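P.,

For your records, the input lines for the assembly:
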Amino acid sequence: MAFAGPEIEQLIQLLSRLPGLGPRSARRAVLHLIKKKDQLMIPLSTALDRAVIAVRSCEICGNVDTQSPCAICADPRRAETGMLIVVEDVADLWALERAGIGAVRYHVLGGVLSPLDGVGPDDLSIEALLARAPQYREIVLAVNATVEGQTTAHYITDRLGPGAPKVTRLAHGVPVGGELDYLDEGTLSQALKARTQI
Amino acid sequence: MAFAGPEIEQLIQLLSRLPGLGPRSARRAVLHLIKKKDQLMIPLSTALDRAVIAVRSCEICGNVDTQSPCAICADPRRAETGMLIVVEDVADLWALERAGIGAVRYHVLGGVLSPLDGVGPDDLSIEALLARAPQYREIVLAVNATVEGQTTAHYITDRLGPGAPKVTRLAHGVPVGGELDYLDEGTLSQALKARTQI
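C-alpha cells returned:
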C-alpha cells in the first residue's frame, strides 16, 4: 500500500485492529471516511479526541463513563432495590442495561478466573466486590455460562460466606425466540428441570 | 444508552455508520478502544486528525493520497507503458494496485452512468479522461461487469472516437480458484468463447 500516503496507511492499519474489521473492511471504511470527509471523518475525529479526554473507569463499579462515580453509581434511585449484579465485562453491563432490567447497580469483575491464562483472584475486582456486598440485599452473579464463569461464581460465593446477602445466578433455559431443535442437551435438561407452571 | 456519557454515545453512533459495522459491532469496537486506550484509541485519534488534514484528491486522476498529483501520477516510470486504466472508484484502483499489475496510470471516474439515479456524463470525470487519453497508447476500461458499468464503457468508447488510442476491457472468465459449479451461465459461456490454447 505504498501508493496511498503514510497517513492513510496508518489509519487502515489501526482500524483493522478493531473487532469485526479486517484489513479489507478497514480499507473500505477508510475510503468511506475519505468520501464523507465533512459528514463523517471530521465528526469522528472530533468525537474520538473528546472521548480520549473524557472517558474514565468508575472507581466504584468499573463501568466506563465520562464521570466517576459513573451515572449508575451516582443515581440514588439505583440503590433502592438493593440488587447488585456482578458481570465479567462492561459489554455485559451494557447488554443488561439495554434489556431494561430496572433500577439495579453493577460490579464489573474485569474478567474471569482462568489459571491457564494466569488470571487469579487478585487480577479481578473481587476485594472491591466483597467490600461493597454488605450494602446490598442480593448479589446476582451474571457471569457467562462458561466453565471459567461458573468457577468464578463459585469462588465469589465461597468468599462471600454464609453471613452474606442472598447470592443468585441467572436462569438457564430456552432463549426467547429460540428453537428446541438447535439447543444443546445441557440447556434443554436445565430448562426442563427449571420448568414453571403456566 | 443514556448510561454511558454523551461522548461515548456519539462515538458509537458515528462508528456504526462505517461500512461493515452496525450498532452492535460499533459498541464492541468502542469498548475495545476504551480498553486499549494507550495502544489503540489515542493512536487512532492522532491518525484521524492527521488524515483529515493530509488527505486530498489527486487533481489528475482522482485517486486519494496525501499529495496532489498523487504518488502514481507523480511517478515518471508509470508513464512508460502508456497504459491508462479507467476505474469507477478509488477502491478499484487500490484493488488493482494490490494485484501488482505493474507500471500503469489510472483514471477514477467517480461512479458509473445511471439515469435512474440521475447520474449523467457530467457527474463523472469523463471530460478529464478525454483530455488525458491522447497521451496514452492503450485505455483499459476496468469498470465493473454490471449493466451500468458496461453502459459507461460503451459511452466512453463512443466519446473517444476512432482516432483514439486502443481501447480494451478486462477479460471475462472463471475466477482463479473458482469452481465451475458455482458460476453463472453468462460467465461460463464468456469463458468458453474466450478459451485459450494450453
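Two observations worth noting. The longest helix of chain A spans residues 37-54. Chain A has a mean pLDDT of 90.

Regards
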